Amino acid sequence: LIGGLLIGGGNGSIAWAEAMRTPTNVVAVLVATVPLWMAIMDWLRPGGTRPTGRIMIALAVGLAGVGLLVSPRDPLLHTGGSAVTPICAVVLFFGSICWAAGSVFSRHMNLPRSPLLGTSIFAFTGGVIVTIAGLARGEGRMLDLHHISLHSGLATVYLTVFGSIIGFSAYTYLLGAAPAARVATYAYINPVVAVFLGWGLGGEALTSRMLTAAAIILLAVVLVITAPHPPEESSGQPVVPD
């Protein structure tokens, strides 16, 4: 369940959206809504905690910022020759909700005592789900090993080591060792980094509208992160691995 939500729904939706040429900086800003969805999920779960008025205001502000980012009024947000289409926005929203749900569920389920074992199970099952989905879409016949460049190969190695082995392991460990609000702070750091990396290295446009929307979303996330939270019940994960 957790592997399917985190890897299959969360990372899978991002991979698909970026394959559809959605700019990475826009993807990162939309994914920054994860802490907002986590607050909702934690409220809806059995025995959950109702968000405070401050958090509810932050949720509304964050969604307003996202609405500004993907509003069809302009008619679409264009960056670097690409556009955020409604279907990509929906898929990214779905992926953010999946990631939030998997994160909240993992804090209240009995998991392996070893965080590394739990991480490997999440990654393996999620990878199987994504592989099946890709094969079902006919992507298997599109794979040509002879056309894999050194650049893409090194990028895959980098994502495997730093994104999966180190980053994902750290994230799943912290879900059991720290309050969810603190763990979720990664989501408002990523967009800031991605926006400027996309601008500096990827040739993506940095518009005033994008900066305004990003500022609104990040303000909402900060309000959620810094809001007082009641003591959280212990998750199924230990603070220190065996």
Arithmetic mean of pLDDT: 80
Helix content: 55-70%
Note the total helix count. Answer: 10
What fraction of the residues are assigned to beta strands by DSSP? Answer: under 5%
Structural class: mainly alpha
- Assembly context of the chains: single chain
Low-confidence stretches: 74-81, 233-242
Largest sheet features: 2 strands, antiparallel
Could you spell the SSE succession in H and E letters?
HHHHEEHHHHHH
Q: N-to-C terminal Cα separation, in Å?
A: 24 Å
Strand order of the largest sheet: 1-2
Large-scale geometry = globular
- Nearest-angstrom radius of gyration? 18 Å
- DSSP strand tally: 2
Structure description:
The protein is mainly alpha-helical. 68% of the residues lie in helices and 2% in strands. The chain has ten helices and two strands; from the N terminus they run H-H-H-H-E-E-H-H-H-H-H-H. The chain has helices spanning 2-19, 24-31, 34-44, 53-70, 86-106, 115-136, 150-177, 180-183, 186-200, 208-226; strands spanning 78-79, 82-83. A two-stranded antiparallel ribbon has the order 1-2. Helix 1 crosses helix 6 and helix 6 crosses helix 7. The protein starts with a helix and ends in a 16-residue tail after the last helix. Mean pLDDT is 80; it is low at 74-81 and 233-242.
Topology:
Blueprint: H1 2-19, H2 24-31, H3 34-44, H4 53-70, E1 78-79, E2 82-83, H5 86-106, H6 115-136, H7 150-177, H8 180-183, H9 186-200, H10 208-226
Antiparallel strand pairs: 1-2
Helix pairs in contact: 1-5, 1-6, 2-9, 3-5, 4-10, 6-7, 9-10
